[in-house]
Design brief:
Elements lengths: L26 E2 L5 E2 L6 E2 L2 E2 L4 H16 L7 H9 L14 H4 L13 H4 L3 H22 L13 E5 L2 E5 L6 H22 L2 H4 L4 H6 L11 H14 L19 H9 L7 H18 L2 H36 L2 H17 L15 H12 L11 H12 L6 H4 L4
Antiparallel strand pairs: 1-2, 3-4, 5-6
């Protein structure tokens, strides 16, 4: 199989960049911008990198993930974790980590909140947040009461997935998987690709002039443009113990993109993705310091393509994994895979095609794919056919630079 590398046809404009090098030394591209070995940038002897807000939100997601399987939790308690406030906006200290309770950040406020996709589309943003609210409600009201009931087609409850227990609704969907995998797109990818890496945010107001003049944010050691780029970086690497060299702990640092980037690079077909993305983040940040905004935007295009591909690859992976599980009679495993696939398909709405400047799939296309996923019979995922799985897999892969065979398990 053909291994996908950084220098794919989709991003020929970036061919001259040093990102294709595997050397460990600082690299200088043809524009003269130095790409550092690690994501380390200093001014006046102190770090100019900051993404603490992203780190806090990633920690909030981790607690949310656990709460969605805590059968003692109520809808209001979990929704308070999502919003970091109660339904009236009051501070209720929903987290076990006191630092998160003290934070002004929340996950809900950044769900479907990018400048590019949602600043003029508040109705869709509200509808997306309502989806996440509904998955919390569904988990507590439609699954929690049936914790010890055996699940079956049309019946919610518990079902075995190897040595693990999964908890599905009457149509076979795990709401907690839809919620967390949906946040991979609606929170992490949307904020990274369509907000902080977009010129609408990077170049907002006087950002370019301020960056050129090294005018810092008041009380901080960075320009506003530097900080916006760092915030994008934080949605992927903000959970790492060493944020300057995050590939060492890749996969164990959060529940969202970091975890699944590690899964993707475990496949030989996509093994270079982590380095591609990390190198582009480093060079893009260096380009900002140097005031080379064309080079910055070329690196943003690489990141947008690669992060979007991760979502597409994992959507196809889980569809094809479910097909194999159905064929072997491992129904619980199949439903779990499909629930993860549901969330990744939902996340396709938040991808970014650097050629078109839009998502690889529109909101309507994603909605139709989710309807197809649940639509082969009255029992939803229990009734899903191999034909529909393959059709969806091909539809997704055809929009990207990979094949179903490459993304499928065991290849």
């Amino acid at each position: 199989m053909k291994r996908i590398t950084l220098c794919t046809p989709l991003i020929l404009a970036a061919l001259f960049l040093s990102s294709c090098s595997e050397d460990d030394e600082n690299q200088v591209n043809t524009t003269g911008v130095l790409s550092p070995v690690t994501y380390s940038f200093e001014r006046n002897g102190s770090s100019s990198v900051s993404y603490s807000g992203q780190t806090e939100r990633l920690k909030m997601v981790s607690e949310l993930s656990s709460a969605l399987l805590n059968f003692d939790k109520s809808v209001s308690e979990i929704q308070a974790m999502y919003a970091n406030a109660d339904s009236l906006g009051n501070d209720v200290d929903p987290f076990s980590d006191p630092s998160l309770n003290a934070s002004s950040k929340s996950v809900r406020s950044k769900t479907a909140a990018s400048a590019l996709y949602f600043s003029a589309n508040t109705a869709e943003s509200a509808a997306i947040r309502a989806d996440f609210d509904s998955w919390i409600m569904g988990q507590v009201e439609s699954i929690f009461p049936y914790q010890n009931q055996a699940a079956a087609a049309g019946t919610p409850g518990q079902i075995a997935d190897g040595t693990s227990a999964r908890y599905v609704n009457a149509k076979g969907l795990e709401y907690n998987q839809a919620f967390i995998k949906g946040l991979i797109g609606a929170l992490a990818a949307d904020q990274m690709l369509n907000n902080y890496l977009d010129p609408l945010v990077l170049d907002a107001g006087s950002n370019r002039a301020d960056n050129d003049a090294s005018i810092l944010v008041e009380g901080k050691n960075y320009t506003n443009m530097e900080h916006k780029w760092d915030e994008a970086y934080g949605y992927l690497f903000g959970g790492a113990s060493d944020g300057s060299a995050p590939l060492v702990t890749l996969g164990g640092d959060d529940e969202l993109l970091n975890k699944y980037l590690a899964r993707v690079v475990g496949d030989d077909d996509f093994s270079g993705f982590a380095t591609d993305i990390y190198d582009a983040f480093k060079l893009g940040r260096a380009a900002i310091v140097a005031g080379d905004y064309d080079l910055r935007d070329q690196q943003a295009a690489i990141i947008r393509e690669r992060i979007s591909e991760i979502i597409g690859i994992r959507a196809v992976y889980y569809l094809q994994s479910a097909k194999l599980a159905f064929q072997s009679g491992a129904i619980g495993t199949a439903l779990h895979d499909l629930s993860e696939g549901y969330g990744f398909i939902y996340s396709l709405r938040f991808t970014h095609n650097p050629t078109s400047g839009t998502a690889y799939f529109s909101a309507m296309e994603v909605e139709q794919m989710l309807l197809d996923l649940m639509g082969d019979g009255a029992n939803g995922l229990w009734d899903l056919s191999s034909t529909t799985i393959d059709q969806l897999s091909n539809d997704i892969a055809n929009r990207f630079n990979f094949t179903v065979s490459q993304a499928a398990p065991g290849n």
